[in-house]
Amino acid sequence: MAESEPPRKKPRPIVRIFIFLISHSLLASVICCTAGVLALSLLPVLAKNTYISENALVPGSASPMLSSQDVSEANRFVKEITSLNSKPTSGIEIPRLIAHHIVDLGAEVSYHKFHPELKKFHPLHFFSSPDPGIIHENYSCSLFGVNTVGIIRAPRGDGKEAIVLVTPYNSIKINLGEALSLGIAYSVFSLLTRVTWLAKDIIWLAADSRYGEYASVAAWLRDYHTPLFGGLGKLNGEMCHESSILFESKTRPIMETEISDVFRRAGTMAAALVINVADRNEGVEKDTLSIYAEASNGQMPNLDLINVVNFLAVRGQGLHVKVEKLQSLLDSKWVQTLGELFVSLGKVARSLNPQWKFGISVAEYIEGTATLASSLYYQALGVPTGPHGAFRDYQVDAITLEISPKVSLNNKVSQNEFLQQGGRLVEGVIRSVNNLLEKFHQSFFLYLLTSPSKFVSVGVYMIAFALLVAPLPLVAASLYSDANKSDSTLEKDKHASCTASVDEPGITFRSWKWLHAAKTVLVVHLWGGVVTLLPYFICQIPNCTPTTSILLWVLLSVFSLIILHFTLGSTFSLVNVSQPQKEDWALLKSVTISASFIGLCLMSVINFATAEIGALLIVPMCLMATPLKLDVKARTLRAFTRAACNMIWLFVGLPLAAYIVIKGTFEGFGSVNVGDFWNWVESLWAWNSATYLYICMIHLPCWVLCVHILLHFC
Fold this sequence. Notes:
Blueprint: H1 13-23, H2 25-41, H3 43-46, E1 48-49, H4 68-83, H5 93-104, E2 108-114, H6 132-136, E3 145-152, E4 161-169, H7 176-192, E5 201-208, H8 213-224, H9 232-235, E6 250-251, E7 258-259, E8 268-277, E9 288-292, H10 303-316, E10 320-323, H11 333-352, H12 362-381, H13 389-392, E11 397-404, H14 412-434, E12 447-451, E13 454-457, H15 458-469, H16 471-497, H17 504-511, H18 514-538, H19 546-568, H20 584-606, H21 608-624, H22 628-634, H23 637-653, H24 655-667, H25 674-686, H26 690-710
Parallel strand pairs: 4-5, 4-8, 8-11, 9-10
Antiparallel strand pairs: 1-13, 2-3, 3-5, 6-7, 9-11, 12-13
């Protein structure tokens, strides 16, 4: 008797579940995408109250030490600065005045001369910091700014750590708000020169923002972290032969402290605060503190730093704290409808179990959605919202504090009250950070804000992204499996009807024909790299308007795609593939979806917000892509609906069209100009935003491949 065959081993449960999901990929896609959008809309409801994770911070544990005398001295300091506006100025009078006041306090002081950096497109800047040699090309003896740096050496410290205060101001024409921000910093700096509890050095950077707030701070940070031998005057001596009276060493006859161009440093930066005062009266009911935290490529400071500022501002100084909101969503009807729906669901949940605290009020949901959308947008944009962004490039936690007074500050009494309020806030934050024994690490670095006191952590918002991209590998595997099954059926029919020997090479190459689809996808993504570099050459054209630049970019991109198609995109095979198989488009779609999935996952590591917004556009576009020829042949309502949806998603998925639609929706289509898209993209590459790479190398190639699938002649 023949030996019985051993029983086949059953696959593991996880494998059976995966096989089931692949066989029902359509249903799984609908469920996952719907759940992903629902989870994203639920984020304001799921937001938690903020809390201080680091016990050593203990904000508000000590009484403020800033006295009325410190405030009066700061007020006189502000008057001296504003009085310089009535005199002809060359931009060095205010830095010299600040330096002399710092010397009078007994602290170390130095000047920092920097030159404006031209924001030019350079492909290597996406992968490395600007080369100092490149920056030197922009130097000019007549174009420079002067930062004033004061340093207090901590009496209880070892000089290894420091806290930075930054006050940007225009040294040519300073306004009242900038003068008041300098006054707040001066009052705190004056206090800290006398205290004995300092364990970290204090650096006050009075940043000359005549060429931009970010540029002055970034230049100082670059030199702070770059070893320099000798003074900055020696560094620029080869270019600027004429001497500058500002950078000649000056010694006060009364003080032994020398003011020179020697670059002075303190310890490793533990945190940084950028202080701004809004020189306007918005008619608010109480003094307002706006917090700006977004840095480059979606980087955020440790949440504890924001929590400390929020705690001290609300409970210590009675300020109204706010973060940026997307104003257009505050009056949105569909957001209000969603809020009402979630309120009803919350009532049902509480009726089932009173302990379930699900749901918030409609006003809170609208406010949270507008704040969440703003946080998501600015993180996805990848452009810093203030000079604090320069610190995150060196892994220093920093935020910008913008204080808006409720009344005019032209009289002395209101100025004194405002300076005391702002000074005590900054003093409290410095005192909390001074207590740290190590860098911020306890709280979150990956989060989205729905209000100054509520946040969504990475463990919650990643669920929405995971649900959105989950159908991609399932559909890709299902398409590949179906294409292989069709091939197997064709081979069996051919083998049964043919008595000749089996064409083994034909079977081998037919089973590997997915390589042609992979080659097509690879060529299109290589084209995406070409599109990424084209603006470098367009920027070399003199007097080119934004509209002309965007048209040139489009024409050169189309031309380069045609060239790559004829050079690298031709089909090569050792078998007869003169007649395209019906399954070719399915294999192409499978590889396209796989490439989209990989690109979105990689982008989620670099900048989650960009990946989240990209998934909302790419996932439906890739999943629904089907040749229009098949839909036309089917002549059913479902086929025509799918074709219409494909055309809509393709229009919305095109980056230029998406930009026009979004801007027109929020700002009105009358203000939309095609050249604005070039300006927007130019700002992305000027700030080395990874979103620019995502648009050109992931999103745009996927859009082109979806167009190719729609126009496939099957």
